[in-house]
Amino acid sequence: MALKIKMFIWRACYDWVPTRCNLVARGMKMTTDCPMCNQSLETTLHAVWDCRIFKDVNKSCNFGVHMGKGNNTKFFDFILNCFEKLNGADLELLCVVLWRN
Ligand SMILES: [Zn+2]
């Protein structure tokens, strides 16, 4: 796996991705709504996986990974769940998809 993808996953696990929720948490004055769908908070997990604009891409990958509804699931918990359920090749593909999203 490319180093830039590993670094992205590591940064996402620590919420160091500049999503609106993360920027507001660091003091910026802005809305936390997702600018792509305007239907949810732009958390790290929402920005790279859960936003409805990615649903077709994510569904076509057919990883069979599901997460709880709502804005409470953290990216770290999601990727931990993926590490437990996916084989190495699927996990690597998932990481590339998350990075591309
Ligand atoms: Zn969205």
TrEMBL record:
<feature type="domain" description="Reverse transcriptase zinc-binding">
    <location>
        <begin position="2"/>
        <end position="55"/>
    </location>
</feature>
<protein>
    <recommendedName>
        <fullName>Reverse transcriptase zinc-binding domain-containing protein</fullName>
    </recommendedName>
</protein>
<dbReference type="Pfam" id="PF13966">
    <property type="entry name" value="zf-RVT"/>
</dbReference>
<dbReference type="InterPro" id="IPR026960">
    <property type="entry name" value="RVT-Znf"/>
</dbReference>
